[in-house]
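PROTOCOL LOG
Step 1. Enter all chains and additional molecules of the complex.
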Amino acid sequence: MAKILVVDDEEHILMILKDSLEFSGFQIVTATNGEEALESVAKEKPDLLVLDIGMPKMDGWEVCRRLKGDPHTKALPIIILTAYAQTSDQRKGADLGADRFITKPCDLTYLVEEINNLLKKK
Amino acid sequence: MARILKTSGSKSIPPKRRRVLRRTTDHLDERLIQLQALHRISTLINSTFNLEEILKVLTDSMARDLDFDRTGVVFLDRNSQKPFQSAYASFTPVEFRLILEHYDSLLLPALDKEDIFIETADNPPPQWAHFLNLLSAMSVCLLPMRVKSRLIGFAIGVRNHRLMHLSDDQRRFFSMFVSQASTAIENARLYEALGQSNLTLEEKVQERTRDLLQANTRLLELDQIKSNFISMVSHELRTPLTAIKGFIVTLFHYDKEISEEKRHLYLGVLNEETDRLTRLITELLDISRIESGRIDIQWSTVVVPDLVQRVFETLSMKAAAVRFEKNFSVDFPEVFADSDKLEQVLINLIGNALKYSPSDSRVVVRGRRIDDEVEISIEDEGPGIPESEHEKIFDKFYRQDNEINRKSPGTGLGLPICRTLVNLHGGKIWVESQLGQGCKFKFTLPFNLDKAGR
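Step 2. Run joint prediction.
Step 3. Record the structure below.
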């Protein structure tokens, strides 16, 4: 069973992401800010990351920059899931090496599809 | 004719004729000098608009061609007709000051009277005797300079040791001389004024250009602020929508997997998130109305403790475990304010206090009078706010990072709206707090009419 780390500071969003992904057969671990996310990546060794951007302590941009800049975590697929919806944000995500950029609100079944695609590629 | 020719051709001219001839030659010499002087002056008119140069040539020429020992020129102000600019070739500054001191009483009447005024030391009227004495002169001559019969100034010349008497011929020459000089000077002054006004015009153009550039920069900044605001609004609206859509899609898609208990929880969250969205939209409209100046303050007399009581009653159903108290000083006056706006401020502040209050704690609203203001304080026993965030919490969309905010996020607009509304009343709002010590949100309102901006 693939293990997915879901990072979001909004409690309700985190709740429904966790539930729906579990219903889809994934094992879910969660974090509510960037710092927790980095700790969890090291400890839980997830197969994929669903990452919010606007978060306290450390934002998603920085998490993405660090993970994609580190040879040990470079291969970890990252799906950015954010309410930042401008083209410039998408470009920034691509520049940082994120594998997918999905704008909130989104259909969670689409998220599940994208997760499966990325895991297959891996 | 033949006789004259014969006589002039002869070597032996009789003494009488010789005298006549010499007189004629002298006369011609004098006329030649006069014509040369006039020529110099008229050349000057056409050659330069430089006032200083003209003045120099004029005073030099007066000394040489009109045979003065000391000369000076005085200009009159166009409006006041008082001396305002002078050039003196050979007077000392002290002497020239003496001349100006006598302008109103002595010189002006003389200038008004005659084209060329001369006074000499042989039997002058007493005040002129005094004046000549002051300048140590035997003769003084005033040459009024007129342009189209308006007095623009005058030239003054004195002879130190000689009495001065002019023939009609000389008088005519002096007149022509000074009239040419007047034209030259007036032209130069007009030219200078034109230059000045060009300069002023140029300065004005530069100033306007600067203003426009500044306005443009400010507009660009405002545009940037506005587009930042719009992208923040977009982000803030998408967040509750994400939760709502997430729950609905999950309820649809995983219908069989979801327990009754969970379904119930989901519906509760959906209800909360739609409330949050509604609140956000209301507050966004509020803030855009306030910021575009489309808000009317309906001034009336408000009894603040009554208003606080009403807010307590509105909020009490959400606050079973919190005790509301109010404590207003006896001299707390009625204030002149907009009752609805003030209620909005109180709901926001007391609502916030409630949100952060632990069970079995108090929310106290105090009111007191300080000089011609009232201060209202909303105090809770919650976790408090670190000093580094005391200003930030009044920024639009700023939300503190804490457990309570994650569970029940606000819109990030409540406090900015409170600040704007309090400012509109002419008051201030701030927070006093330390981590773990609870919060005191305080705001002031001026209660006298003048200060309320009426």
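Step 4. Note key features.
Chain A has a mean pLDDT of 94.
The first strand of chain A starts at residue 3 and ends at 7.
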